[in-house]
Amino acid sequence: MLWPRTPVERVQLFRPPFCPWPECAEHHRRSRGYRFRHHGTYSTRRRSVPRFLCLTCRRTFSRQTFSTSYYLKRPELLLPLAAALQAGGALRQIARTLLCAHSTTARLAARLGRHAMLLQARALEALRGRLAEPVVLAHFETFEFSQDLPFGIATPVGSRSWFVYGLDPAPHARTGRRTEAQIRRMRGLPHRRAFGGYRGSTTRVLRALISLVPEGRRLHLIGDGHPAYDAVAGSHPLVRLARFPNPKRGPRGSPRSREAMARDRAMFASDLLHALVRHTMAHHRRETIAFGRRLNALLERLALMAVWRNFVKRRSERHPAPVTPAMQVGLAVEVWDWRRVLSRRLFPKRESLSPVMAKLYHRDWTTPIYPRNTRHRLRHAC
Ligand SMILES: [Zn+2]
Predict the structure, then answer these.
(1) pLDDT < 70 positions in the chain
(2) Ligand 1 centre and the CA of 35: distance in Å?
């Protein structure tokens, strides 16, 4: 996957590769030969920024239009915020450290999440027809707003590379024992769409994964025996499903049975990812007051986590060789840092987002318990 190393702000002789205006015919250009004219400069406190004129639509733009920090009053916050979110900081804690308003951290976290969704979409596009490893599928369990509104998140991950191949939410009803008071409270909740629940989520994930498998080959899926996986993947002609249900385990500290060891070995990549999510993200810790309020915001931050897992974090920190999952699957040749992840702005009309990711990108996956759900509808902000 081609991805520049130098942030666009630091490129001395920047040449726009396409027109940033989504309505322009040159917006979708992939090849060289975009026609533009230099159109002066403007000055900021730090530097002078070149402007350009598109010779097709006759509209102007600047080098900053191609930066992830375009239109920001405090562009310097983006990088430390990404690192702080990934280091387990909650929004208000980060705001205190960075000396900004907590609403700023929330807005920038959403921007980072959208960027991560587009970068992940581009990575998957580059992996089309190249998936050459078994994929471990499990749903990570969490909730939005309160534990009365639980949902799972499908996290397909490569069994050898540990590359995260996607995220897909599966809202479902609260399970387990409930008291009378809890049942009464839940009756009063507004209706929440499930979008197929576990089955819907599994179907969408399988569709995405099958498109990555080389033609004529079947997808090798490793599942934990969830009924939805059996129902959707069990009889699928293009999927070979290996089941590893969690066996009954003895009290803490007792030796693992043979089945338990086989299950833990097969599901390791997924168990590790889920442990990393709980360890590195403030809102997924147990018993926290920083829990996620809205499914959409949770998925934005999880998309950022997936990009960090795939491109920034080494596959294993104990292993001396610096190898990331993206290097394992052949998408990168070196370890990336946050500066590199954010080196270019991505435009939603130029990337192929899956329908569910497009819904999350535009914040159309709402949380009905809130009277207001802000959508992402700004015309020029991507
Ligand atoms: Zn144009």
Answers:
(1) 378-382
(2) 9
